[in-house]
Amino acid sequence: LITRHSTLYLAKNRRVVMPSWTEHEEIKELQKSYSRNKVRTTKYTFLSFIPKNLFEQLHRFANLYFIFLAALNFVPIVNAFQPEISIIPIVFVMSITAVKDLWEDQRRRKSDQKVNNRLCDVYDRKQKRYVERRWAEVCVGDLVRLCCNEIIPADMVLLHSSDPNGVCHIETANLDGETNLKQRQVVRDLPQGSEFVPENYSSHIECENPNNDLRRFRGFMEHPGKVRVGLHSENLLLRSCTVRNTETVIGIVVYAGHETKAMQNNSGPRYKRSKLERRLNMDVLWCVILLLLMCLIAAVGHGFWLSGLQNPIYMIPDDTHPALAAFYMFWTMIIVLQVLIPISLYVSIEIVKLGQIYFIQNDLDLYNPVLDTGVQCRALNITEDLGQIQFLFSDKTGTLTENRMLFRRCTVAGTEYPHHENAISLEQYEDQGCGDADHSLTLRSRTSRKSLSCKSLSCNRSSVSLNTLTAESDTHSVHDTLRRHTPGAFSGTMECAVVPDPQLQAKLNTLSSAMRSPPRQQAAEISHILDFFLALTVCNTVVVSSPTQPRHVMPVVRTPLRSLEEMKAMFQKLSLPRFPSSLSQNTDTPTSLTKKLFTRGRSASYFPNNSPQTPIMTLQSPTTPSGTPSYTPSTPVTPALSSGAWSEDVDDIQKAKVNSADESESDDEDEAEELLYEAESPDEAALVQAAKAYGCTLLGRSPEQVLVVVPGTGPLSIPLLHVLPFHSARKRMSVVVRHPLTGEVVVYTKGADNVIMELAEAAEDGFSREVMERTQRNLDQYAREGLRTLCVAKKVLEEQEYEAWLKRHEYAETSIENREELLLESAERLETNLTLLGATGIVDRLQEEVPETIEALQEAGIKVWVLTGDKQETAINIAFACKLLRPTDHILMANCDSKETCEARLHELQHEIRQVTKEGVSEDDSSDCVLVIDGRTLDYTLQKELQGSFLELTCCCRSVICCRSTPLQKSQVVRLVRDKLKVMTLAIGDGANDVSMIQMADVGIGISGQEGMQAVMSSDFAISRFKFLRKLILVHGHWCYTRLANMILYFFYKNVMYVNLLFWYQFFCGFSGSTMTNSWVLIFFNLLFTSVPPIIYGVLDKDVSGETLLDLPDLYKSGQNSQAYLPSTFWMNILDAFYQSLVCFFIPYFAYTGSDIGVFSFGSPINGSALLIILLHQLIESRTVTWIHTAILLFSALFYYAFVLLFSLTCVTCNSPTNPLGIETKMMSDPLYYLVCGLTTVLALLPRILCRTFCNTICPSDLVRAQKMERLSAQDYSMSLRQWKENKAAQRLSSRHVPQNLSVNADMPHLTDCIAEAGAVLS
């Protein structure tokens, strides 16, 4: 029993879940405290909107500042004008923001209502049946029943599945974007029958508290008999996922509502502060200092002015001391000059960024018609950062490459099989433009040539799996056969098109050939080959289905007698004399031969023979004195499959068989039984398809067994004991199976080559050592060809060894605390002393236009780093292929085994670069050096003591390639460069292993590729192809930065210019805080009359066209150097504003000196001139003038004059105590008004026009030169463009000196071959 004390303890540390009808009072109260399933992603309610939105907006310093000024204006002793008018600006700005927030919140509210009102079946104990309930009413402890294609309402532990094997499949696309199916299984030891009786369920669950880790679930289920069963992620159905291929599932809710993992990961839009925004905040502080200085001058001036007066008759006498009056005047001037701080700037920036995002997302050049996706802008406030990128960190697989893994070649037991025909067929297929033809597929029926229509089979996800089935063809060419493949996840047409190597195929054919037996030396080799392909077939998590059955149903059949007889005949052909041993032929049976064939290879050994000149050596296996094998299995041979597991007849088996006889049957028969593979990674799909091409076909999978076909046999059921999934720390995965023929417990492992080679045992007989050496040479060759390498190994466990490991492994599975660490240790204990079987080489082709994109980014001054987990040779070859490396580049290698060696190596490389520099090389020449560093060395360089040396070295290199790097190292590298070098960084990747790097960079970009949407969901921007990065950065990034920078500078300019008019007037009114403008115009001038044109300018202005920016990547450097918004540029604009305000004030002043006009009449030509100056100033700054710009400028001018005229004609007491009635109409009827306005405008703008003309003529910038080029004819433009590039190339060449002897790491002798083959880029 659970005591009250333990309940309180568990409430803090764990979660206890029992059925909702439990009579345990403490548990019932505890479950009531858990979150309900109603979700609310809105910020506000009807009552909380106003106070909460105000509270949020008051977090902005600018809003607080203006509210303070509005409140200050209500103090009679310091107010400057009508208090009611002073609150208009802040109310206007905050109202616009509130309306925007309310609109966004309303969209979220509608979405929440739709989700909460969905229905599901929940068990009601009172009614003794399942009843429909809204999602919002589901609670922790409820038993929920779901049918196929229904969405899971909450996180549930799977208690029952209609599948007899207790499994179901879910699609997690709504959660992580992955479309391949995930397999989930019922908790062990729960009764599985045709029906699940909720009343009989009395177990309780203890699990971890809610968290956001989608791939982890720790806990256990305790049955009434105190038996505990471990719970893991395989038992958990996650909210928002969809049930597929299972008629019914039942689960108990453990997390509901906002405690579910889906909601824990729902962080909403990302918010980052851009570099320009940080600069803006600094300049706002300068404006505040300027405001305080101007107010201080006015206050001191007012005090001195009062002290100099001797009882003037026009002032009401009071007892206020001049110093106190000056203090009051300081606050009055704060109110008068408040417009110096641009209150509308922040709202304008948000509007401009929304406009920029709209144009980015609707750019057709960034649209991918294949995926029907464009650019996604997930972070709404850092668009301008795209125009200032200095360092780009890229993943390789799936980012630079397709992440469509195609099996290319393999090596088994030291013998390399090049698969030349496979390579030729893939090249021919791509040349015919079929690389993306996976969208038009044909399924043929068994009895006709007609296309099989796409039906919903049971609850099979046909629409997702089979896509659209069209394009029937009766031809039987190779390429037609390729096109007819039906893909699952990562199983498109190209992945399925594996042409076997003739030599390897011939060796496997000996197993099914009735005419000839294998040569003597091939017996052990065939043993390795069978194990190799068996490992490829079973060591994965691939889900299997066919067009005629759902994925989760395994075609379970009874093994026919014919298959067993064939199996015996196959092994009889491998009689003992053919093994290179001295064992007697007459003493062994086929059963003993079966055992020998599948032992670890020590009973029969051979040396690989790659050439006729290589002598064949044989070693005798250990034997007993009587000459019989010393190995006797502890478990009897069990070729028969588990009874009761097979339900179909012998005919179905023969249809599923894959052997030489089946291959001669008609295409229609093969196509009718075409298998669909849903893989979690493209590597798995490629390897399973390769094994299938050789006749080792994966037919089905369940939690307990795997159904496979081996050449020469019928379906074999392989008991699946354990799956040790891939882990980034282990870099491998394993399966533990009981061999169907020998009964032995066998571990099959596949993983990274460097890891598997370390774990492979070194056999005393030298055979394994020889295999490892040959395999390593083949791996090096694969890497030089740019192939992804993977090693395959096995291990045979003794029964006692397996039982001992199993006990500790079960303890790790049932642990809640430190479960991941314990499982990792358990897997590492098992994966030791492996026997190497072979290795595979998989080609991952470059995406289109990747070389051109990287070349353009480098020309733009962006340093491109590649962070990959691949081998150095592979990474170097890919770098050459994508033009990250050039044939003339000098590769600096850093491969060190200790921290001291690493430090010495870094100093050595720095010294060599300095020596080259002393020989007369300019700094630009360092761009010829490229650093290649491995993961172990990278660990050392990331330590605090070596960070400085590492960064100093990388600054001298044009690019850096980090190999064998982990996800953590990727993020650490990005953070190091970002924080230490103070540069703008961008990280791009496509997989979950890139998430930390993407989040660490200033700008994170995710690619919606083959590895799901984890990278996209963590990114600021999402694209579908790497090539789109070119226009996104070089064009849209440049535009966004220059537009926003110029708009901000313009806002500062116009506010300072207009405020200074009021400041100059104080020198003529005794610094009394009076203004020559009525308060309405004063408030609306910057808020309405001049605020719209800069917004249009910030959204639509183009200093250079997109085509020119792509042709001349050098233009991007202006954004990297922040040339549009330098401190000097800011202060030049401020000085220009001071000058223009002086002209705008004093020309009307001298023009009307001696006249009898009033104060407001004097202000009329000043306001009119200021408006024209400010609008025409923007016209001068605009690089693009369209009808939209012209219309907005005219509208602003007409709006101002319409307002002041209407105000002058109708307003009598609008500006108490003065009266503006008739002032504007009288002034505008005087010709002097227009003369003053025109002369003032010309003189104010003349210096800026002359300065710009002088600079653009004498020393034009690259942007100005590009603008001039665009005005040329097409022919002249092409000539100028060619001349431009020749000049830039000549400049780089003149500063380049190629060093003759820059050494590389002596530990990498094969690197010379990599460089020599640099020209062989990947097609």
Automatic annotation (TrEMBL):
Its EC number is 7.6.2.1. The active site is at residue 395. Residues 621-639 have a biased composition (Low complexity). Residues 29-87 form the P-type ATPase N-terminal domain. It is found in: Endomembrane system; Endoplasmic reticulum membrane; Membrane. Its cofactor is Mg(2+). The chain crosses the membrane at residues 61-79, 85-103, 280-305, 325-347, 1057-1073, 1080-1100, 1130-1152, 1159-1180, 1186-1212, 1232-1250. This is Phospholipid-transporting ATPase. The lineage of its organism: Eukaryota, Metazoa, Chordata, Craniata, Vertebrata.
